[in-house]
Structures are given as structure tokens and as C-alpha cells.
Amino acid sequence: MRHNVSTLTATLVAAALVSCAGCIRITINPQCPEEIEVGSTGQLVAQAANTGAIATYKWEAAPAGRVTIANADRANTSFEAVRSGEVTFTLTASDGLFQMIGTCTTV
């Protein structure tokens, strides 16, 4: 029996959507200190909920070079301020099905 690839793909997508009708997506509310001294350490907190069984996290800082993030792949981690200026932290979190992105800013 021969199946049209686009028909099979559409069927699989529809099945995934139906099976996930009651799914609750991951939520985050990234928190970081408003201000920190150069040379000091601050905390990054995801405040994640509905994480599912296989949650993943990725913290990034922009502009690069102003902070060093200890464990960028953890929900809650620390960073060290190495240069002065404003830094925006971006957290990308996934529960394996949904992905959320949030930010917080430190001076």
C-alpha cells in the first residue's frame, strides 16, 4: 500500500494535536537581580512550572562578555559580573513539546 507523504504527515500532526488536547505547556518567569557589582555573583531563577518529565533550559546573556554564567543549562544557576553595563538574560525553556522564552535585565 502506498501513502502520500503529505497525507501521512498531516495525519501524524493531527494525531499529536488530538492526543495533546489536555496538555499544559511549560511556563517560566525568569528572575535576576536588578543590580550587581562587578566581581560579584548573582542568581538566575527560572521560576518554571508545568515542566513535564524532560524539561531543558538554556540561559544566554547579551551583550556577550559582561557576565559568565555558571551552568547555562540549569533552571536555576548563578553568574559572575565581569564587566560593567546592562545585561539582558534570555532563558529558553522546553518541556519536550512546548518552548517558552523569557528575559530579565541586570545592571
Summarize the structure.
The chain has 107 residues and is an alpha+beta fold.
Give a topology summary:
Elements: H1 5-19, E1 41-45, E2 56-62, E3 67-69, E4 76-81, E5 87-94, E6 99-106
Order of helices and strands: HEEEEEE
Gross morphology is elongated
Give the helix tally. Answer: 1
- The unreliable regions are 1-18
Please bin the fraction of helical residues.
Answer: 10-25%
CA(first)-CA(last) distance: 63 Å
Mean pLDDT, as a whole number?
86
What is the C-alpha radius of gyration, as a whole number of Å?
Answer: 19 Å
Strand content range: 25-35%
Structural category is: alpha+beta
The total beta strand count reads 6
Largest sheet: 3 strands, antiparallel
Strand order across the biggest sheet? 1-4-3
| Multimerization state | single chain
Main attributes?
elongated; 3-stranded antiparallel β-sheet; alpha+beta; disordered N terminus; 35% strand
Describe it.
Helices cover 14% and strands 35% of the residues. The chain is an alpha+beta fold and 107 residues long. Strand 3 and strand 4 form a beta hairpin. The protein has a 3-stranded antiparallel β-sheet with strand order 1-4-3, with no helix packed on it. Strands 2-5-6 form a 3-stranded antiparallel β-sheet, with no helix packed on it. The chain has one helix spanning 5-19, and strands at 41-45, 56-62, 67-69, 76-81, 87-94, 99-106. It contains 1 helix and 6 strands. The longest helix is centred in the N-terminal third of the chain and has 15 residues, at 5-19. Mean pLDDT is 86; it is low at 1-18. It starts with a helix and ends with a strand. The relative contact order is 0.25.
